[in-house]
């Protein structure tokens, strides 16, 4: 035992440091009893101490089992004494939680289940690190877990990763310096520690000294992370996290905006119609510096009367032909999404409704799931809007900005609009700046939380410069208000995804991830007109566009050209419609493939992984030796120590047995080596004590030959 302690104490100490570094954030995330943190750390110390002191698994397993169960009892006593009754109770609730997760009754990982798993992982890693000295896999597993905690719980674990990396490097050096003399080992350890300290300091201070380096990393990986977000990866993992970022969807509370968003792909409703467009739900006027709110009064509509909605009540011009839109909600909602223009819904279809005039919101008291609306879209030109003068007689609420708004916001607004003579020109100048010219980046996953002392719009415009629709729409509204242009904040849904249908009967599916916001600007004689400052989005109701596709993510781009103030371009809707019809047909055809093909694929993949795992386990040693020789072709001593460790696992070496004596005994037990292990041992001792460096030609082939012979051998019992 004395020799084992001498050999393993350093590895045990580093292993303990790595496990504690990982475990503390876990306790924080799952909000477990912080007063018991010292106890948890002491249990981790016990795990490592058991691995250092005892080599036999017959001794270690009972000790691990006792400490494991007692730690669980300490955190989850279940109002019982530690014993068989508690164990049975804990087992019953664990099994029940498992079946509840399988059945979908709970969609998160309960804290006690997570604790059971993480505690088992700690014991497994203690054995792996100290007994088997497998530091690479352990390091990757621990760092991967820390990164998962950081990404999905918005934690800054930079120092934990730095500590973990330094500990892993020291672990590697300590493992491979065991057979060197004490003086050289001490010098080497000291130099390595100094180098790691310098590296850690550089890793911490470099992003502070060069802040653009961090932005560069986020920018270069934005596409990948956004694609993963759209595919639902963040949503799936979010189910098992605590204190994670918000999910996309229609929000009732907009008083505090900011922070990252994760896409929720849950379908809300479908709309059968001829073309896509935005769906307004409500508007808000009062900007607080942190978000938007309204003081509103609910007014019931006359009983038995049809619901009539007009987003442009002042408009007296022409309308496009009336169209019937068929709604189908997946689950009943109390709000009504409606398009820009005039809409009428029979009372028999929609039932009793209420209005919130200040928010232009319709409340569905009866919450119907299926109904039809008759819709008329306004038909006016850009030229007519260009003739509208700046209106100053609108309600002061629509030009309100908080007195705490930083002056530089107003200065930016004036600089953007001072060269424009018309109301429309000023509005488009601000829209163009946010959408293209201002170097702002659209991202849901990288959007920052606004510091408590900062204004939401100001922080986005001048500091973070990264955000999604709420950032862009709020910024445009506030910039326009700063120069006296009446504007307000609107929210609802973008057009969604076309999922089936052709011609006048296209079906669009609107999901939580399609929740959107945009600004509206008041034009006298026309009412409130929507604009779209968010990059890669296009609102069909905006007068600056023709028949174009509105995209709902940053990776898509519009396929029709916008009509600008100075020139008008015809959009090629026929080509676009044909292409989209083809894509829909292909999608529907693909969705009809039998599920058993998918099951066959996954079954084949599982079998392939099992076969690969078997051969990897069987030939791991010789493969790792080949990799080591490829990376370190001149490191004979390191390669020999790997062989020696493998041999000692097969035939135990006595405490006071020299290497030559051990090699001689090993060759007697395994005569198939024909002296190769003995020759390598002689070369190692000549290099270690005689300072005679062996030539590569003398040992390279011999190492691989000996490694192949060692690979299939089993431990002598």
Automatic annotation (TrEMBL):
InterPro entries noted in UniProt: Bact_TGase-like (IPR052901), Papain-like_cys_pep_sf (IPR038765), TgpA_N (IPR021878), Transglutaminase-like (IPR002931)
Coiled-coil ranges from the UniProt annotation: none
Region span, Disordered: 540-586
Swiss-Prot/TrEMBL keywords: Membrane, Transmembrane, Transmembrane helix
Membrane-spanning segments: 12-30, 36-54, 61-78, 108-129, 136-152, 158-174, 186-206, 596-616
Xref: Gene3D superfamilies: 3.10.620.30
SMART domains: TGc
Biased composition annotated in UniProt, kind: Low complexity: 547-580
Occurrences of domain Transglutaminase-like (ranges): 461-535
Organism domain of life: Bacteria
Record has Chloroplast as a keyword: no
Protein name, entry field: Transglutaminase-like domain-containing protein
